[in-house]
Amino acid sequence: MAQNRWTQPATPPPPLFVGRAERDFVKQINDEVIEHVVGQQVLYFPIDRERTNYNNVYGEAIQKTFLPPIRVYSLIDYEGSTRTQTEFGFDSLFNIKINFHKRRLSEDQDLFVRPGDFVQYDMMYFEIVDVFEDARFLFGQDKNFADGIAFSVQAQCLQARKGLFNPGKGI
Amino acid sequence: MPTNLQPASTVSAVVLPSTGTSDDVVNSLSYGIYTTDAFVSGATDQVAYTYNKLGGRVLDLEITPVIVYNAYEEACLEYSYLINTHQAKNVLSDMLGNTTGSFDQDGEFTEYSGSGGINTKPNLKFPRFQLGYATHLGRGVSLHAGVGAAQTFYSASFDAVNDQQDYDLQDIIYSASLQTGTPFSNSVGSSAITIQRVYYKTPQSMWNFFGGYAIGAVGNLSTYGMYADDSTFQLVPAWQNVLQAYAFKEDLNVRASHYSFRINNNKLRIFPTPSGISPTKFWVDFRVSEDAFYEESDRKYGADGVNNMNTLPFPNMPYKNINSIGKQWIRRFALSLAKETLGQVRSKLGSIPIPGNEVTLNGPALVSEAKEEQTALRDELKTVLDEMAYGALMEGDAALQNSLQEVVGKIPMGIYVG
Predict the structure, then answer these.
(1) Residue partners of B12: CB distance under 8 A and separation at least 6
(2) Among candidates B31, B84, B28, B366, which has minimal Cα distance to B46?
(3) Which residue of chain B comes nearest to A109, CA vs CA?
(4) Is the ipTM of this structure higher than 0.95?
(5) Do B356 and A152 touch (CB under 8 A)?
(6) pTM as predicted
(7) What radius of gyration, in Å, describes the C-alpha atoms of chain B?
(8) How far is Cα B189 from Cα B192, in angstroms, rounded to an integer?
(9) CA Rg, chain A, in Å?
(10) What is the pLDDT of residues B59-108, one digit of tens each?
(11) CB-CB neighbors (< 8 A) of B12 in chain A
(12) Using a CB-CB distance cutoff of 8 angstroms, which residues of chain B are in contact with residue A75?
């Protein structure tokens, strides 16, 4: 009697509805919407960790060395300001949330969003204080199906004082 | 300095370029029915037209030039289809029974025995007007009338038997058909025969001698017409002679016959009962019912040839024979087809996620607009063509003549003043 055994195919077929072509189409639309339609952009300053002199105990560096900044199109939300009262008066720092299109960053610009990096937006500098990937699936496919890349990366940013980050003139 | 200001996408985005590439056209076509240099040039230009009309200079169009090339070819085929359909209405009645052709998968001739062979384009010709369909029907009518039919009439005779009044003509003729040498040998079979005429023969010269009007009678206008009446010659109109001929014939057939008959289900009953002496034979003219699809082997009449639009010898309309009116229609229709495809692309995913949000594309709107445009373009062409149908042209000419007469009728008549 013949055995009726299920055998896993060596090369599984692609998803029927959303495959490579559809994912590339989504990326193309995202690129177009973010860059040509919306047009919001930040200047991303990756901190050069090899050349920055960190404090051995606290891990912080007063003088930061950064790699050449990169223009990145993204979707940015203002999230109000954090106001604190000090003995010298009010101290108001803006908060923004930057939504990066991750495939555009990683595939085309070889850029990875990290906490501690800085961005320039609206003539202000912001420090990335938190980074988290979008938990949304791409039409039901988590990142393990969709090229191993999360759909987007969100960076929570806090305005940086000049004393904290000062890339100098000409930027 | 900031770097990567305009990073190139490592994913090959599908975006329509502003111009087409003529070298890519022929190999990109689904059917490849149109491949001439003129068509390639037109398809290449269509890319630029589509790019500009759909806003490619502002936003991306997620289609490829191949889609546009194919849309352009489809538009040519659609135009050819509509024109050929219209022309079929114009000429079908005159082309019924004409030579049809064999076609390949593209709708082009592989065989055509009509005038010009496979290189001809009957759909571009202005056919002779021969009342073809009416003539065909007329043949059927004439068959029943017993005149000028395209079906053979046979004659057969049987012996008159003394005191036998009934004769089964179907059986008599069927038996005769089994004999070799008869004109209708083996042609009856199980077919019903149709009796056209029943008669018997005696020396016809004698009947003509005694029939009609006796030789010795003095004739005038009311007797034998245009003959000498003594020394006076009377003139009579032609119809008078014709009517007299009919009267003479009827006189022979009816009054001088002595016999009459009745036929029911091809069984003949003769009145009065024949004696078998005179006449000794009775004759019938008959025909054998033929199959509706019987084809005459010795002449072009039968069931072969064009029977409807689907067998018309109409290949695709050549690109070079599409005039400027058609070319503009094709551009517009191809644009609409490209728009529909763009709409389909943008419709597959209802909404596209973007970082922190999602966008809804205008795919359904594009599809809807494209469908409406295509319907409007088809209707526009059909409407114009219907107004130019051969029958409509004739009506237009008649209306023109009537209007002309009305105008002329209002011109004051000249009054002669002496």
Answers:
(1) A24
(2) B28
(3) B7
(4) no
(5) yes
(6) 0.77
(7) 38
(8) 8
(9) 21
(10) 899 999 999 999 999 999 999 999 999 999 999 998 988 889 999 999 99
(11) 24
(12) 354-357
